Amino acid sequence: MKPLIIGLTGGIGSGKTTVANAFAAKGIQQVDADLVARQVVAPGSPALQQIVAHFGADILQSDGALNRAALRQRIFSQPAEKDWLNALLHPIIRQQMQAELATATSSYVLFVAPLLLENQLQSYIDRLLVVDVTEQNQIARTLLRDGGSEQEVAAIMAAQVSRQQRLAAADDVIDNNAGPEQLAAQVDALHQRYLKLAAKHS
Q: Which domains does the chain have, with CATH numbers?
């Protein structure tokens, strides 16, 4: 029996993690696409062994973990290498995500994916929940969290789908422009809605 799957996405700095944690506090399991992507290239994994065989051992850090910065530099200017890496990793990541979603035991499950729309992962989910903030808030919160410059944040935002596209695709929206109390109230309301939908879904 496949659980009801709620996709959770939002632009950089929108507060996806805060929202995901609020659902987790209610006992809702989640599958995090970024986490899965890191797990499949963990030290000792078959995927990492293939990456080392292809790019050489200097792609590793001294502790045996993948040197992501070195890998990014290697594939950045070489489309063929990027294609090779994607062809290797994407099927493994998708298989792992599907396995984790299928074995979730909470009433419904959150599929947390910052690039859910960009990577066309809608086929995995039953509903799409978008965490929405103004672009000014996105920039301010990201700078507060990560440092860097406004130009860098703007470049990341430009590489993601636009706020309008995200809202157009959404089944549900959490407005995260206000304070924690308003956020908690919205999560509570959606949790109740999803419990009802999950009961019908099963």
A: 4-28+106-201 (3.40.50.300)
